[in-house]
Write a structure and sequence with these properties.
- The protein is built from 20 helices and seven strands.
- With 502 residues, the protein is mainly α.
- It has two domains: 262 residues, no CATH class; 116 residues, no CATH class.
- The strands form two sheets. Strands 4-3-5-7-6 form a five-stranded mixed beta sheet.
- Strand 3, helix 18 and strand 4 form a beta-alpha-beta unit.
Amino acid sequence: MRFTSLVIELIRARPRLIVWIAVLLQAAMWLFVALVFYRSPPGTLATLLAFGREYQVGTDLGPPLPVWLADIAYRAAGGHMFGVYVLAELCEIATFITLYYLSRAVVGSQQAVLAVLLTMTVLAFSSSALDFGPLVLARPLWALLLLHSWQIIGQRRGNAWFAWSIEAGLLLLTTPSAIFLLLLLVVFALSTVGGRRTLLALDPLFALIVVAVLALPYAAWLMRAETLVLPTLPAVTDLNARAVHAAWLLGGLVLGAAAIPALTFLNTGLFAGKGEEPPIIYRPPVEPLARNFVYFFALAPALGAVLISGLLGLDSVVGGAGVVLVMSGLAVVVAAGDLIAMRRARMLRMVWAAAVVAPAVGVVLAVLLLPWTGTGEIATSMPARAISDFFDESFARRTNHRLRAVAGETQLASLIALHSGRPHLFVDADPARTPWMNQTKFAETGGVVVWRASDTAGTPPPDILKRFPGIVPEVPRAFEWLVTGRQQLLRIGWAIVRPKGT
């Protein structure tokens, strides 16, 4: 009697249930990591929230939608970062569920599960799970665009145009790379007979009007801000260095997707047991148009993003690895054939689970162990709530006024701006970044200026002293990290600028 594992049977009988279980468990894992091991937001999330508090149509952080949504989630959670972390994980869940429906339309329900599980290993290593921002929000929007693009081109479903137009407009309000991604959709449509026929109808015109209406406010801000300029192309002498940089970016994408070839290799006949009859995951034949659609959007976004980023000398690929690699798992499943034999299913499950869990384990180990090496700081170990409470209360006691603004080192000032009072962030080193505040307004409302203290006297850095020549430094305040280990306490120098009339 042949034994088939419960997971394989569930993939065959309840594929959607397997997807939901895997996706929700991953989301719960990251939320647990954030609640237990994060005392301050990761990356630039604190700055994003400080900008979101102002509800500007546009900032140097990019289009406004991620900034606004982050602030709404933060307020909805009562001023707790948990709301933003939940928002980030909802984006992750929406990405995978949308990918499942797209994969189901191409390879059927059973193999769609494999496509989602493979993609989960890619996104686990190649993109942040909790650092909400344009790169995180763009993932579900791009997945939805791909789903409805296939419904329009491959399934001739004209009623998908309205959803497509809304998603395209929201993507333009999310990331500057939206134009590049939308151009890829146009290129594919023009390259196919069905796509060209679809574009000749009236529906694309109405969709274009909806997209234009959604993107109009941000487009007007771009024109007023005079930021619509052509990128500077590199000189001929720099092309060699840019090519090397592009190769490194491509290598980073390949490394982020390394779990897929590893799982594929482990599922080859080399690891099959003698006389083993592996269970088969079946699919109906994939039509040529669907195959071309999957291969195009698995390769063109990644290669195009690497080319553009390498040519312009950008630090990361345009659109983010999580966007350009979102179709990689489905592409491998399509290439695998109509029948996929699951050899050594138990080993495959263990390797897959290790690939999905490894980034979270790495974060936990870094928080717990790196402080004992004394080699660097863990930004998420800063006590954000204690920092913001101390400076808010200190300003209120000294001036009898509520803290209205904070300036100085942007990272520290952004943490203070997270306080329930939500003071304005003032980037004094580059005032154009924060048009809602300038030196004159800051002098009127008063505020706190903060910096990393390099001595026990709390002497301000020369650049801060130059911008605030009249400040009198206070005794630096020391804060403990989540895990102090061998590193020094976090010492913050500060000074109060009193409001006018006090």
